């Protein structure tokens, strides 16, 4: 493909916040594993990524920090072979290939990027379980889970390229441009209120020179919004369990085998609950059981997990960047009966769907991106103190995909946790199955 002209573009406020969120114990990278069969060759993978991945300009860009935040600037010395690394898996005596791969992925999740190069990397293990394993690491400032899922789908056989477009100004990165999109996961009434009323108040916030027409309506809505802000600020710190404490920065990663998604749908239908309710209840039950086995009584306890909520139309995912909010979901780990636990999760999800908290979390990240890093760290510490885990659920393709002619037989991903949060849970459906992935501090 032709090399595009050099660019230098201002990074958004929210993406800047994610860039600066790296710390000694948590790196802001999204990690994924693809298991393919038969095996694929190194140069074949390099050619595929050069042809498909680099159609997204951001993957050619280094991050250049300055007094106003950061910019995306074309890497004049870009070389695909620096970003696609070939390596061999070396299991220890008695260790399975799967256990060795999980250990390697955990080590890579704690390995910082070279800041002089674009912040992404693929590791190809050519010989793995009769095929190959491809491990990707992409910094969160490049894009959120929805955006990067779109990117990863584009590099599969027959994957769609991003739309061609002329570069346009973002209008000073106004909050209204970033926030006011159809709010997936929120109620229709809430979305209508946002389109009708919050737009005016955010316009004033983005451009103080504007008049105050409609300020009364904005104030009325503002009272409701402030209630949600207060609810976030006044949330009690999370229940003390073995999952909270000082982190080491060393990561452990695991994933399970897929099980039929149809079974989960049947359970949800029988109970009048969503697939998501059932899966989250499974996570709550597993965490509660593990704590009890470790001697940590979970009876009557609840923990909070931050759940990403998409804030843009899925057709815009190719634009990359971070456009999601965070919703604090309470997991009833102390409810032992599985059916009662599903109903408890359903009730908590219903409360979140009519809340503005995801929108407020997004705005907080935008504001944090304007502040000095110590101030940003203090602001975002609000989430860490009140949270035990980060949890995300992504629906993948219903049929198996191909990559460089090989079948993508299994895939899993992990999102990072900020501050001193030490647990990340991922749920992914793919090819008729659903599976859980876990990343924790050692």
Helical coverage, percent range: 25-40%
Strand elements, count: 16
What's the rounded overall pLDDT mean? 81
Radius of gyration equals 22 Å
Query: How large is the share of residues in beta strands?
Result: 15-25%
The major sheet is characterized as: 7 strands, mixed
Separation of the first and last Cα atoms? 43 Å
Secondary structure category: alpha+beta
Could you say which overall geometry the principal axes of the C-alpha atoms support?
A: globular
> Uncertain runs with pLDDT below 50, 5 residues or more?
166-226
Number of helices: 13
The H/E string reads EHEHEEHEHEEHHHHEEHHEEHHHEEEEE
How would you explain this protein's 3D organization?
- The protein is of the alpha+beta class and 442 residues long.
- It is globular, with a radius of gyration of 22 Å.
- Helix 9 crosses helix 10.
- 36% of the residues lie in helices and 24% in strands.
- A hairpin with a 2-residue loop joins strand 15 and strand 16 (433-441).
